[in-house]
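Narrative of accomplishments. A recurring question from our advisory board has been how the design workflow behaves on a single, concrete structure rather than in aggregate. To address it, we present the structure tokens for one chain from the evaluation set, followed by the sequence designed for it. No filtering or post-editing was applied between the two.
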């Protein structure tokens, strides 16, 4: 018999893409990153932050915030509570709270949000509508 103590299993490190169990065996991701030099095509649904530093096309949906970083290129439909754009975006944005286009942003999109901010140094072409829209009989 050895006097050595048994080895304990190594702790599992936490990652930026932690997940939680969801209904029907699906997992909800808390944070997602499409890094520099990476490309994502398709539908990405995330429970928290989505940060795009590379290229994306398709649909991005978050219960929290979507960030399109400087240098990123996105051609997609975005749906989130808050959207911040510093890179290039073509498509549509639906944000229940707010949309911020910061210096360096180049955006061609249809935007629907409660609040919209276009900072000096950002470029925008498209439409902006309030969210939610007021029914015609109450206007």
């Amino acid at each position: 018999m050895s006097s050595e103590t048994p080895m304990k299993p190594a702790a599992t490190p936490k990652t930026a893409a932690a997940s939680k169990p969801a209904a029907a065996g699906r997992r909800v991701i808390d944070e997602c990153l499409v890094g520099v030099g990476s490309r994502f095509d398709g539908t990405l649904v995330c429970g928290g932050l989505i940060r795009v530093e590379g290229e994306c096309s398709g649909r991005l949906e978050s219960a929290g915030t979507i960030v399109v970083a400087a240098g990123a290129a996105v051609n997609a439909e975005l749906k989130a509570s808050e959207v911040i754009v510093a890179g290039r975006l073509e498509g549509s944005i639906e944000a229940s709270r707010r949309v911020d286009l910061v210096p360096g942003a180049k955006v061609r999109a249809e935007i629907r949000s409660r609040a919209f901010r276009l900072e000096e140094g950002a470029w925008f072409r498209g439409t902006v509508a309030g969210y939610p829209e007021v029914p015609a009989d109450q206007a």
